[in-house]
Write a structure and sequence with these properties.
Number of strands: 2
Order of helices and strands: HHEEHHH
Mean pLDDT: 79
Low-confidence stretches: none
Helix content: 25-40%
Radius of gyration: 21 Å
Number of domains: 2
């Protein structure tokens, strides 16, 4: 069911207005406030709960990791190997969580 049909909106009115509530172009980075259609708006849909998506320290760390390891391992660690970054993350989480053992099973890819 289309947006217009669901809300009982005349399709011609929606098309003529040029308004589409989905896939809006973001003109800034993701954060609690963003710029969309040249207006500053509050983001209620972001998963950036801690406000770290644009933290300069994390952006610099990400750039350094890309320089060292590339943008993707192109496979899971069980198949292609395990980086020092994986090990460091596990150690940090172990330290902060007071648990005895931890191992991540990364099963995602960057495209």
């Amino acid at each position: 069911m289309k947006f217009q049909d669901y809300f009982g909106v005349n399709k011609c009115v929606v098309e003529e207005s040029g308004f589409n509530p989905y896939y809006l172009e973001i003109q800034t980075g993701i954060g609690s406030r963003m710029r969309i259609d040249n207006r500053e708006v509050i983001s209620l849909g972001s998963n950036d709960y801690l406000g770290l998506a644009n933290d300069p320290r994390l952006k610099e760390a990400a750039k350094n990791a890309i320089d060292e390891f590339g943008i993707s391992m192109c496979g899971t660690p069980i198949v292609v190997g395990y980086t020092s970054l994986n090990k460091k993350l596990e150690g940090t989480i172990l330290f902060l969580s007071y648990i005895d053992q931890l191992h991540f099973y990364d099963i995602y890819y960057l495209f």
